[in-house]
Amino acid sequence: MKTTLLALPLSLVMGLAATSAFAVDGRINFTGRINSTTCPIDIINPENGGSPSNLVSLGWVDAKDFKGVGDTAGHRSFQMRLTPDSVCVLDPLKLNATVTFNSVYGGGGDHYGLKPLGSPATGVAVAIRDVTGAYVKNGTASSVYRLDASKPTLMDFSAMYIAIKDTVTPGPADSDVEFTVAIN
């Protein structure tokens, strides 16, 4: 019996020795950083005293203001403010930002669809222009905005109604647009 007990530990030691004989020592280095995935973005509407709000009013526009496809009315400027802080730390080597808007209610090209609730206006949509005056196409990045690594940056845009048909009929003309700010 003593022989059996002695043989068991001896076989374990031999098994471990055989395994370690084929082991190779080395090192793996892991590096990285834990960041917040988003930076706070405030929508600034100059018409309400510059207070943050996600509402930009395009006002009441007469259907007769639209003579044909591409006519615009109800222009309003707004800004998107990105503020670096302890949660949003910007890499000083990556301070270029673009904004991509996506229509919640359809649309395409240069426009964003209206909410299909009740009896909405027809033949019209919402359009957005960036700081260069170019239309920001639905699902396409805006022109580049340069960010400040330590102070708030204001990215200027304007929104308006745009005729997408020759005839525009009256009704509510509300739209929701989602956005993504890409920093690179």
What does the model show?
The chain has one helix at 2-21; strands at residues 41-44, 72-82, 96-103, 107-108, 111-112, 124-129, 145-146, 153-163, 177-183. It starts with a helix and ends with a strand. 11% of the residues lie in helices and 29% in strands. Mean pLDDT is 82; it is low at 1-20. The strands form 3 sheets. A 4-stranded antiparallel β-sheet has the order 1-2-8-6, with no helix packed on it. It has a 3-stranded antiparallel β-sheet with strand order 7-3-9, with no helix packed on it. A two-stranded antiparallel ribbon has the order 4-5. The longest helix is centred in the N-terminal third of the chain and has 20 residues, at 2-21. The chain has 1 helix and 9 strands; from the N terminus they run αβββββββββ. With 184 residues, it is mostly beta strands.
Short synopsis of the structure:
Helix content is 11%, strand content 29%.
Blueprint (SSEs and pairs):
Blueprint: H1 2-21, E1 41-44, E2 72-82, E3 96-103, E4 107-108, E5 111-112, E6 124-129, E7 145-146, E8 153-163, E9 177-183
Antiparallel strand pairs: 1-2, 2-8, 3-7, 3-9, 4-5, 6-8
